[in-house]
Write a structure and sequence with these properties.
The protein has helices at 23-32, 83-92, 108-113, 188-193, 195-199, 267-270, 298-307, 309-312, 350-364, 381-387, 391-401, 410-416, and strands at 16-18, 36-38, 55-57, 67-69, 74-78, 95-96, 130-136, 142-146, 164-171, 173-174, 177-184, 204-209, 218-225, 241-242, 245-246, 265-266, 287-294, 316-324, 339-346, 370-371. The chain is of the alpha+beta class and 417 residues long. The mean pLDDT is 96. It has a domain at 67-174: Uridine Diphospho-n-acetylenolpyruvylglucosamine Reductase, domain 3 (2-Layer Sandwich). A hairpin with a 5-residue loop joins strand 7 and strand 8 (142-146).
Length: 417
């Protein structure tokens, strides 16, 4: 066995973990092993990265580098590196990604392959920024795919089904500054009456709450900051109160753990919630679930969950609500529709949480929710096929690229059952 995931709710059943130091060594491992799976930063809460009896590999130490193509405005980055490491290097090059997830600790390949995202009405999920992928495929060969490749839209949210990702090419833009502000204690009634306005009130907005509470906890704005000719931030007025909620007038909310508030800084240090040196979220003492619904169903879906608040909240650290723009990636949770994401950071109550998920999914069913692939959900094939109309095409492509099932595992076979 190769240990446990970050929250220690999963003990992997792989027989060994390998850490190749070069792409060539990785190719040899894949070509010789019956079953292989990439293990990133262990932040999935299910068995998407497991391979019972097979070999897990980490690609963090392949000796790769970040390269920037300023003509194409792309950056090619090691898939096994964390977003924090990649973001810092891109910032040094004077370029940026459009968004980051809440946690900068997660690997680029693992995050994108499972549908991770940030927030913002105009911001797509992280995988939508991928313009090219390099894989070690089932026969050990190294292959490159890009947006000109047929069926490329299947690959960015690929669940590890096509191979072991070595390098990822990402769209980049010029670097920019971001300021964070938190507004505390807006009533649920006010939030739901003004939800569209609130979620559009900054470049990226995150709403934190509990479902049985009368008031939300935090409206967390991440706003773009104008700069002068020297690149310094231009001061602008920031309201002390919005939607009946006062602004938290502190810089260091949780030193050493949460990114800086009120003071503008580079995107690489503000778009994520947590600093890479500190423990993110609940520090691993948690489970996570996330569902995506159409923006047009946002208020109705939240109200369904609020009706279940007395059942949900005893097992909940908190909910995080974000917006994600539509994309065309086959297994993206926001494929074909602008979405509201409903994230649950659960207390580590696995029995109770797993019992709740079918009821939550049944209550949300009229809104056709889609899951985050790296978190806990109860949906079976029938629901998933209904909500991802290219799922069978995805499975067919995975089989064509990997006919002997090198990268298959029980998680993927569940999708085809």
């Amino acid at each position: 066995m190769t240990g446990m995931n970050w929250s220690e709710n999963i003990r992997y059943e792989a027989s060994e973990l390998r850490a190749p130091s070069s792409v060539e060594e990785l190719q040899e491992i894949v070509a010789s092993a019956p079953h292989v799976k990439a293990l990133g930063t262990r932040h999935s809460f299910n068995r998407v990265a497991d391979t019972p009896g097979g070999v897990q590999v980490t690609t963090a130490d392949l000796g790769l580098e970040v390269t920037v193509d300023r003509e194409q405005m792309t950056a090619t980055v090691p898939g096994g590196w964390s977003y924090s490491t990649v973001a810092a290097q891109l910032q040094d090059h004077g370029v940026a990604l459009r968004n980051l997830g809440s946690l900068p600790h997660i690997s680029v390949a693992g995050a994108t392959a499972t549908g991770t995202h940030g927030s913002g009405d105009t911001n797509q999920g992280l995988a939508a920024e991928i313009s090219g992928l390099e894989f070690v495929t089932a026969d050990g060969s190294l292959q490159h795919f890009d947006r000109s490749s047929p069926q490329f839209a299947a690959m960015p949210v690929g669940l590890g089904a096509f191979g072991i990702i070595t390098r990822i090419t990402l769209d980049v833009i010029p670097t920019y500054l971001v300021r964070q502000d938190q507004y505390r204690g807006a009533s649920w009634e006010t939030v739901l009456e003004n939800l569209d306005e609130i979620m559009a009130s900054a470049y990226s907005v995150n709403l934190h709450a509990g479902y049985s509470e009368t008031h939300t906890r935090t409206i967390w704005q991440k706003s773009l900051v104008e700069t002068d000719a020297s690149g310094s931030a231009i001061d602008h007025d920031v309201p002390d109160e919005l939607w009946g909620a006062p602004r938290l007038d502190v810089v260091e909310l949780d030193p050493g753990r949460v990114t800086t508030l009120t003071v503008p800084g580079p995107w690489s240090e503000r778009l994520a919630h947590f600093v890479p040196e500190g423990a993110p979220s609940a520090g691993g003492d948690e489970l996570q679930t996330e569902y995506f619904v159409s923006r047009s169903d946002a208020v109705a879906a939240i109200n369904v969950l609020r009706q279940m608040g007395e059942k949900i909240d005893p097992h909940l650290h908190g909910t995080e609500i974000r917006t994600v723009a539509a994309d065309d990636l086959w297994l993206s949770p926001s494929v074909g529709r602008d979405c509201l994401s409903l994230g649950f950071t659960w207390k580590k109550h696995p029995t109770e949480v797993l019992a709740l998920l079918p009821e939550i999914e049944a209550r949300l069913a009229p809104f056709k929710p889609t899951p985050h692939w790296g978190k806990l959900f109860a949906m079976g094939r029938d629901e998933l096929v209904e909500r991802f109309d290219r799922l069978d095409d995805f499975l067919e492509l995975a089989h064509a690229m990997d006919p002997r099932g090198t990268f298959s595992n029980p998680y993927l076979r569940r999708l085809a059952a």
